[in-house]
Design brief:
heterodimer; A: 115 residues; mainly beta; 7-stranded mixed β-sheet; 4-stranded antiparallel β-sheet; 11 strands; B: 114 residues; 6-stranded mixed β-sheet; 12 strands; 0% helix
Chain lengths: 115, 114
């Protein structure tokens, strides 16, 4: 149980294009999902907290117009990187908070490379 | 605000040796504690968690951790490691509020050598 999927697992795009990453909780409902960014050899950096049916809460320094987050259902949250640039290249990981145990389960991550 | 310190950035050990990965935290209120493992190019997998009750927590893959409130520590241990345990390990805390964020340590790279 408590499985979180992400799609795609990796994506390569041209500079200036937009990329959408999906995060799904497969066997539980998640009112809260989180989006992280991870640079090589570093810990996870929280980008935003996504609550179902409401606007996401972004961490300081994260551009909300660049990283659009939508949490339309209890099992799906999406992160759209708009007008991507090479500096947006990174490993993006989502997590979903399981309501009963209040434990975060993580997706496998999405490797984004912007050329 | 809470914070997490993982005292060792890298821990090299030989196969079948015991290992301890250290984690200390700081918080003005009670927190839940977690250990996650990350294999290369993968997401994080929950190893174990402490929510309440017994301070010795057993997790997957033979790992265990002990919550020590007086020392504000939550060290991870395994009596005999395998090559396959080579990975990055993250200690994390969160407030006892539903849906609250995790605060991570910087991670410890465990390398098990033959």
């Amino acid at each position: 149980g408590a499985v979180v999927s992400q799609h795609p697992s990796w994506v390569i795009c041209k500079s200036g294009t937009s990329v959408k990453i999906e995060c799904r909780s497969l066997d539980f409902q998640a009112t809260t999902m989180f989006w992280y960014r991870q640079f090589p050899k570093q810990s996870l950096m929280l980008m935003a907290t996504s609550n179902e049916g409401s606007k996401a809460t972004y961490e300081q320094g994260v551009e909300k117009d660049k990283f659009l987050i939508n949490h339309a259902s209890l099992t799906l949250s999406t992160l759209t990187v708009t007008s991507a640039h090479p500096e947006d290249s990174s490993f993006y990981i989502c997590s979903a908070s399981e309501l009963v145990t209040d434990t975060q389960y993580f997706g496998p991550g999405t490797r984004l490379t912007v050329l | 605000a809470q914070s997490v310190t993982q005292l060792d950035s890298q821990v090299p050990v030989f196969e079948e040796a015991p290992v301890e990965l250290r984690c200390n935290y700081s918080s003005s209120v009670s927190v839940y504690l977690f250990w996650y493992v990350q294999y290369p190019n993968q997401g994080l997998q929950l190893l174990l968690k402490y929510l309440s009750g017994s301070t010795l927590v057993k997790g997957i893959n033979g790992f265990e951790a002990e919550f020590n409130k007086s020392q504000t520590s939550f060290h991870l241990r395994k009596p005999s490691v395998h090559i396959s345990d080579t990975a990055e390990y993250f200690c994390a805390v969160k407030l006892k509020t539903s849906g609250s964020r995790l605060t991570f340590g910087e991670g410890t790279q465990l390398t098990v050598n033959p």
